[in-house]
Design brief:
About 40% of the residues lie in helices and about 15% in strands. It is α/β, with parallel strands linked by helices. The strands form 2 sheets. Strands 4-3-2-5-6-9-7 form a 7-stranded mixed sheet. Strands 1-8 form a two-stranded antiparallel sheet. This is rRNA adenine N(6)-methyltransferase.
Length: about 350
Amino acid sequence: MKRVVSALWTRRAVRHGSFSTTSTSSSSSAAAGQDAASEAWDGRFRLHKPRGQHLLTNPRVLDAIARRAALQPGDAVLEVGPGTGNLTARLLASHASYVSAVEIDTRMVEAVTARAAALGLADKLTVITGDAVEVEFPQFDVCVANIPYGISSPLIAKLLFGPYRFRTATLLLQKEFARRLVATPGDGEYNRLAANVRLVADVKLLMDVSKRDFVPMPRVDSSVVEIRPRAAAPGVDLGEWLAFTRVCFGQKNKTLGAIFKQKRMVMDLFSRSRRAVQGEGSAGGVGLAALDGDGDEDINDDGAAGFSDEELGTFKERIAGALESAELAGKRPSKLSNDELLRLLRLFNERGVRFQ
């Protein structure tokens, strides 16, 4: 079956002759009509919408994404979710040295491999078969991805908080998720995801993409965003920061004073802080799903059992003192900049208040 699929893809790619090894605007313009035909999905195998398998087929949008990625000579490109290779072909035809594509569906692996071979660019492509959240990525300079919505947050966490050093990531995301990602303090959509990503990177919305540009057509539109990691690492323990933002944004419509005045919250933080002093706290690792989620914070006050009201009272005063020093007790988390949140976290930590 794999040989049949490969042969079909090879004959189809050669027949349309849709991509050359040049990347000039004139050649792209001349081949526009051929591109439109070559990107049409002919239903060779079934696409699974529940798995987020929606192929981008509009050649103008594909060209725009490849252009926005701003690939430079010698770049190593990581593509997540190449599908049948509509965008991969453009990346291979660019100035980049090579493309490493991560794909979990073996049918797609066969299709994109055959397509690269048909274009005479197989030597520039390496396909890694596996789950993008689980596999180890090779070294890369630029990431380009059409991400299934279900793995958007963990994949971005892996890129930004993993061991990878890269220049930029150009990501095609569900429009609603993209809007949350680029939200700024004071926006109605500002959230924990945006705060966590902006701690380590700059994010920019590049363009919107209609749901009609995909096969099969999804229920919602998409957007393309650019993420650029910052050169300087933040001067904060990332695990502590992520736990802190989970507490703050878990009740983001309340003021910080109201959030940290709750008895169960005080007892939970007291328990965590005691464990940290005793060396039993979290090791500070960053979970791949740790960036998102503004639901109510799970509070566990069991660990505070066995301690006196006096000890809890003293701890509560430390919390109040940090809020007073920061002059943020009357502020809501969704209105605060990362600099203000970082200052408050440092004041908490100085007073022995820990969040993980």
